[in-house]
TrEMBL record:
It comes from Yinghuangia aomiensis. This is Uncharacterized protein. It comes from the Bacteria.
Amino acid sequence: MEPRSAAALGAEFPYAQRTLCYIEIAGDGAVTHGTDAGTYERARSGQSRLFAVWPGEWASHLFVIDDPDEYARAHGLLHDQERTGLTDHRHSVRWELDPSEKKPMGSYITIRGHLDCGCTIRDLGAFAKQMRDQSGWDIATAGGWGGSTSSGIYMRARRKSLTP
Ligand SMILES: [Zn+2]
């Protein structure tokens, strides 16, 4: 059975789906299941070839991961502007207390963020990581978030980590 191309599916391929089963074949033919921190680098450099079995309801399909960068973007190893909506730059962020917040002096508060730099948030985890690195913000990625670019994005954050 010839493996299908994951790259041909673009963003449709579920690189980060838990049920996906990765198979790595090293240059010497050694086969390992699953991935580790070095998988991307080995696949990118050609030291190994990476495959994935995508289980379906009736049949599973074998794919070759022929674009390791897509794999890395989906796993947050490479910044992905398309998936996250976020440019890899220093964001210009304003925030205000969300109108729903009843305990404005709590350790975690719900805020409404406005990104004046023109970014949108499609991946709160990626935004939280950037804001932690840039400004020390501690955004609760397990909490609910949402909203729109026009009204602001609401999210939970540790109050004392927020800069004005
Ligand atoms: Zn930005």
